[in-house]
Design brief:
- By secondary structure, the protein is an alpha/beta fold.
- The protein has a single domain, classed as TIM Barrel (Alpha-Beta Barrel).
- The protein has 13 helices and 10 strands.
- An 8-stranded parallel barrel has the order 1-2-3-6-7-8-9-10, surrounded by 7 helices.
- It is globular and about 50 Å long.
- The termini are far apart.
- It binds 1,3-dihydroxyacetonephosphate (13P).
- 1,3-dihydroxyacetonephosphate binds next to α12.
Length: 340
Amino acid sequence: MEDNLKETARAMVTPGKGILAADESTGNIEKKFAKLGVPSTEETRRQYRELLFTTPGLGMHISGVILYDETFHQSTSGGKSFLKLLTEEGVLPGIKVDEGTTGFAGSEVEKTTKGLEGLPKRMPEYAKKGAKFAKWRAIYTIGDGFPSDRLIQQNAKDLAAYAKICQESGVVPIVEPEVLMDGNHSIDACKEATRRVLVAVFEELSNTDVSIEGMILKPNMVVPGEAHARKASPEEIADATLNLLKEVLPSNLPGIAFLSGGQSEIEATENLNAMAEVGPHPWKLTFSYGRALQSSTLKKWNGKKENVYEAQKAFYHRAKMNGLATLGKYKREMEQELLS
Ligand code: 13P
C-alpha cells in the first residue's frame, strides 16, 4: 500500500506535467457558465468536461484530473466512462471529497470545510471505482486578526484526518490549504499567514501519522492581495514562495502542485516558471490549476458544439505552456503558438 501511494504521488508530479482541477461543484460551475449565458444542466456540464478530457494529447502535459462526484460517474457521448477514458490516456483520475465550506464558530469571515462525516465510508468506494487520489480544500482569509489561530488549528486537524482516511484506502491525498488572494494585503502578509498555516498543517500531518511521501501539497503561491496597490513580479513571487517553502516543508514531500487562486492564465504560468527556473528544489513543483487552465477554453467553447475544436486547442496550449513552466522552459513568446 505504502509503495503504491508513493508511486502515485510521484506520477502526479511527473516533470513536464501537472494536474487539471476540473472539480468545480455544481454551484461553482453554474456561476462560470452563467457569466457566458450557458445553461448549467447535468448534460451541459458533461459536454464541457467531455471537451476537456477528449482533448487530443491530453496526457502529454496533464498527469491527473480532479473530478467532482457528478463527473466521476459520467461518460462520453459515445458511452465510455470518463474514468476509463482518462486511464487509457495515462491520466490519473482523482476525486474532490470535501463538501465545500461553512461558517466557522460564529465568525462573520472565517470558514471551515465540511465533509469528514461519512468520509471513511465514501473513500474506499471511490478507491474501488478507480480514484487514485483525492482533494480537500481549506481556506483562510487575511484581515484584521485573521486567519485566527483557532481556524488554523481546526483546518489543520481536518486536513490531516482527511489525509489519513485517504491513505488507509490507498488513495493519495492532495492537501490543499489555500490562503485566499481576496483583499489588499501585502506579499509579506501573505507570506506570514501562509507560514502559520503550513506549520500547523505539517504538525498535524505528523501527529496523525500521515505518510509525507504518499501525499501532495497544494498551496497558494505567496502573492499580494488582488486589491493591493502594487503587483509583484514573477521573480518576487518565486523568491517569497520558495524561501517560505524551504523553511517550513519537509524535503521528503514528493511534490507541490500550486493552485492558481485568481491569478490570470499567463501570471500563473510565469510564476510557476520563475520557481522552476531557479531549481532544482527538494520537491517537484507543478500546477493544479482550475481557472488558470480553463478560463480561455470555457470562453471559446461558450456552450456551442461548433466551438469544441478551438476550445480544445486553447486548452491543450495552456496545458503545454504550464507543462513547460514546470521545467522552467516557458517563454512569453510561446503564447504566439496558439495563433499560428
Ligand atoms: P484555481 O486554480 O482556480 O484556484 O482552482 C484550483 C482548485 O482546485 C481550488 O480548489
